[in-house]
Amino acid sequence: MTRPTPGAQLDLAGTLVGIRRMAPLSLFVIVFGLAFGVAALSRGLSGLEAVLMSALVFAGASQFAALELWGPQIPLLPLIAITFAINARHLLMGAAIQPWLAHLPARQRYASVVLMSDSNWAMAAADYRSGATNVGMLVGGGIALWLAWVLGTLLGVAFGSGIEQPERFGLDVIMGCFLLAMLVGGQRDLGMLLPWAAAALAALAAMAWLPPHAHVIVGALAGGLAGLLLPSRGETPS
Amino acid sequence: MSLPTTLAGTLAALVIMALVTYLTRSGGVFIMSRLPIGPRVERFINAMAGSVLVAVITPMAVQGDWGARLALVATLVVMLATRRPLPAILAGILTAALWRLW
């Protein structure tokens, strides 16, 4: 495993730099956290539960999607499947920077991805490509985003509890609009319309004929399979 | 199989979600140090990531009222035009609110 690539290290100074570089973006994350707090309350979670979910899970899209399952009972299998499917992109993100993290001791390596999410990964991956050896962007950026996400949720819970009839103000559609914005924003490849159409049709069929909540798993798998039909685009050697 | 939404049940659900999410965060690093993810697997994961969002949104569009549907349309339009999620989401919320207060 010894390759002539530049090494990598993790230290406090680099982590602090990472926090500082992520600070501007974190301000926006506070607003998203606020929206999540309001949405969570409107789905019947307590304020404590909403803040705990943000602190423990720290993955916006899957948290919003999980709210859809909340009721008197939480169906376990759909919850696991949704969380895994939405966050499965982390697998690719982690794989992409693995050669970099491989220089760290195993304990640091697996600790440094605890707070990996889209924006701090993107900036860290750019650092890696430019030959930087400090992994602080991944860890520090993650800390900044985590603080903002939890603080935002806290604010949302504090404000949101005063709002009665959230649907009067359109707050019940936050989830759907957030997920749709994430969907469109992360993608500029028109070819994705094929798997997405397959996912929508499969989800509709599952809603009509299968037990409640099965539509998410069925739709995700149908979309993934449809994705295999797409032409492989340029075989990017990573 | 499901958990009751008592505090203990909810806590269990949150811990499970957190573990599954950490599994995805560490899994790529773990797998890659043993075998590379091939292009077919990558395409499947890429397509699945968006598809699960589509599958979650679909019932809202189908079963929701016109306020919800127009909110999705507004979000889509603003997102395509500006590529900025915050204005897009605000446009959606505002659309639903205006439609229902009308």
UniProtKB/TrEMBL annotation, chain A:
Subcellular location: Cell membrane
Major location category of this protein: membrane
InterPro entries (alphabetical): Brnchd-chn_aa_trnsp_permease
Membrane topology qualifier: Multi-pass membrane protein
Keywords on record: Cell membrane, Membrane, Transmembrane, Transmembrane helix, Transport
One Pfam family named in its UniProt record: AzlC
Superkingdom assignment: Bacteria
Residue spans crossing the bilayer: 22-41, 76-97, 138-163, 169-186, 193-210, 216-232
Recorded family membership: Belongs to the AzlC family.
The name this protein goes by in its record: Branched-chain amino acid ABC transporter permease
Organism encoding this protein: Billgrantia campisalis
Automatic annotation (TrEMBL), chain B:
InterPro entries: Brnchd-chn_aa_trnsp_AzlD (IPR008407)
Keyword Membrane: yes
Pfam family of the protein (one): AzlD
Keywords, comma-separated and alphabetical: Membrane, Transmembrane, Transmembrane helix
TM regions (residue ranges): 6-23, 44-62, 68-99
Domain of life: Bacteria
Designated name of the protein: AzlD domain-containing protein
